[in-house]
Amino acid sequence: MKQTIALSDKGGVCMIAHRGLSGLETENTCAAFVAAGNRSYFGIETDVHVTRDGRYILIHDDRTGRVAPGTDYAVEETDYALLRSVRLADGDSGRTRGDLCLPSLSEYIRICRRYGKMAVLELKNAMRKEDIRGICEEICTEGALSDVIFISFSMENLVFLRELYPTQAAQYLCERAEDALLDTLAARKLDIDIYYEALTAERVRACHDRGIRVNCWTVDRAEAATALVGMGVDYITTNILE
């Protein structure tokens, strides 16, 4: 039976399950979210796209083929109902399973709430301000906006979010962080979610000196996580560590 890899000393770092507990269950499925919910994670991360008909669905890729062999739908050019009908492959066997489908945003939020986990929600691709408003309103309907950290590689997405919800927790996704970027994040009151190999203790201090909290992706080796704990990061996003 597969198990998570335990860290002996997390030093107060908040652990985030990447795409749910994707090291054990099929990524970005309700099964992966529940598996994370049943463990000690602080948060559960996933990815949200806007469908052609303006609804919200959870999948990492822009197309369905990798997680649903035999299909090749462009997520943002396909209607929600058709995407929901797609069945996903089991991560172990590679065969599709009738119980694995692309989750809705509300299903994910309800699972996070049921298990008392922070929702770490990536806004995939560039979105319109109206789409970000709609995502937030759907989360508000579940009474959960205060329990969400938004992340995105699109600075414009986060600027729209800031205009709509000035105090909402948000992190800018990036592969490296020079001082100019850190100054921009500090001015916009955004935290950072950075590729872990780009971090040093000096970079973490530079973030903290500006009031920026540090998340890092995607860390699956215990020795790397231990080093990051020593650097003083605030969050670690992982597929399998706990």
Descriptive notes:
- The chain starts with 13 loop residues before the first strand and ends with a strand.
- Helix 1 runs parallel beside helix 3 (105-115).
- It has a single domain, classed as TIM Barrel, CATH 3.20.20.
- The model has no long low-confidence stretch (mean pLDDT 97).
- It has helices at 30-37, 80-85, 105-115, 129-141, 155-164, 179-188, 201-209, 222-231; strands at 14-17, 43-50, 56-58, 118-123, 148-152, 170-174, 191-195, 214-217, 235-238.
- It has eight helices and nine strands.
- Strand 2 (43-50) and strand 3 (56-58) form a beta hairpin.
- Strands 1, 2, 3, 4, 5, 6, 7, 8 and 9 form a nine-stranded mixed β-sheet that branches.
- With 242 residues, it is of the alpha/beta class.
Helix-strand blueprint:
Elements: E1 14-17, H1 30-37, E2 43-50, E3 56-58, H2 80-85, H3 105-115, E4 118-123, H4 129-141, E5 148-152, H5 155-164, E6 170-174, H6 179-188, E7 191-195, H7 201-209, E8 214-217, H8 222-231, E9 235-238
Parallel strand pairs: 1-2, 1-9, 2-4, 4-5, 5-6, 6-7, 7-8
Antiparallel strand pairs: 2-3
The poorly predicted ranges are none
Helical content stands at: 25-40%
Amino- and carboxy-terminal Cα gap: 16 Å
- What's the level 1 CATH class? Alpha Beta
Element string (H = helix, E = strand): EHEEHHEHEHEHEHEHE
